[in-house]
Specification:
Blueprint lengths: L1 H10 L7 H9 L2 H11 L7 E7 L3 E7 L5 E7 L10 H16 L11 H12 L20 H19 L2 H5 L3 H7 L7 H26 L4 H14 L1 H16 L5
Antiparallel strand pairs: 1-2, 2-3
Pfam families: DUF2470, TMEM254
InterPro entries: DUF2470, Haem_oxidase_HugZ-like_sf, TMEM254
Protein name: DUF2470 domain-containing protein
């Protein structure tokens, strides 16, 4: 019974799905993390600290001692958090409390560091957080919207045809297609085709990496996500990101 309750409680944790991005952001604030450890975890001899994870009850900081050994400290919040918007003010308040008590200057004042923002964005995009009990199917595939898929294929097909055709060939096409062709100079189309194809292949590689990192999908669905993203680019990538958000938050959206 206790185990069942623990799993249910964890699956409903409103903060854990955001742990990757928050932890990546906070990992840049080394002085703040060290203050957390020294004050709240009472590790006065710690020489460095790294923010590792966060959930509704508190956060984990890994710290290093003078002899080189590393340990983890879990620091509890005074009150469990209930939504993402509470994370920043609580962490800033705890940092202020710790730094004032230790006689240290404020380390979170000023604009957010670019490095912290970049790390947070990357960590959030590649996060493979899996709740202990997901109400959203993990091993699934969302096809690209039919209308968008047709538009992408038509656009890519037109660019390819323009790239291998001569100006004389273009003159034999219907007038609307000729007008479409005139958007760019004719000699640009081979370059546009190569660039667009390269982007689609790169997106497919990224999709493959996301699928493998998540570890949710069968080989068949990994292949579907990868091939779909190569063919339809951002149209399929949006669906892959959507599935990740649904799993993390436990809500399936139409």
């Amino acid at each position: 019974v206790c185990l069942s309750f623990h799993i249910t409680e964890m699956s409903q944790d409103p903060i854990a799905p955001h742990s990757a991005g928050i932890s990546a952001y906070m990992s840049v604030h080394s002085a703040t993390n060290l203050a957390y450890v020294k004050y709240f975890a009472h590790q006065d001899t710690a020489v460095s600290a790294t923010f590792k994870s966060i959930n509704a009850r508190g956060f984990t900081v890994e710290y290093q001692l003078p002899d080189g050994t590393t340990k983890d400290a879990f620091i509890d919040f005074k009150t469990p958090l209930t939504k993402r918007e509470e994370i920043r003010p609580v962490l800033e308040g705890m940092a202020k409390e710790a730094e004032e008590a230790l006689g240290l200057p404020s380390s979170l004042s000023g604009p957010p560091p670019i490095a912290a923002i970049a790390k947070s964005v990357y960590a959030t995009a590649t996060d493979s957080y899996t709740p202990p009990s997901s109400e959203v199917p993990l091993d699934t595939f969302y096809p690209c919207n039919p209308g968008l898929a047709v538009a992408i294929v038509a656009g890519m097909g037109a660019v390819y045809y323009f790239s291998v055709s001569t100006p004389e060939d273009i003159k034999t096409l219907p007038l609307p297609v000729q007008y479409f062709h005139k958007i760019y100079p004719h000699h640009w189309y081979p370059i546009i085709w190569k660039a667009a194809s390269g982007i689609h292949v790169a997106e497919g590689v990224v999709a493959l990496g996301i699928c493998l990192r998540r570890g949710w999908y069968s080989p068949v669905n990994v292949a579907k996500w990868t091939i779909s993203t190569v063919l339809f680019g951002f149209g399929s990538m949006k669906k892959l990101m959507k599935h990740g958000r649904e799993v993390r938050h436990g809500i399936k959206k139409d």
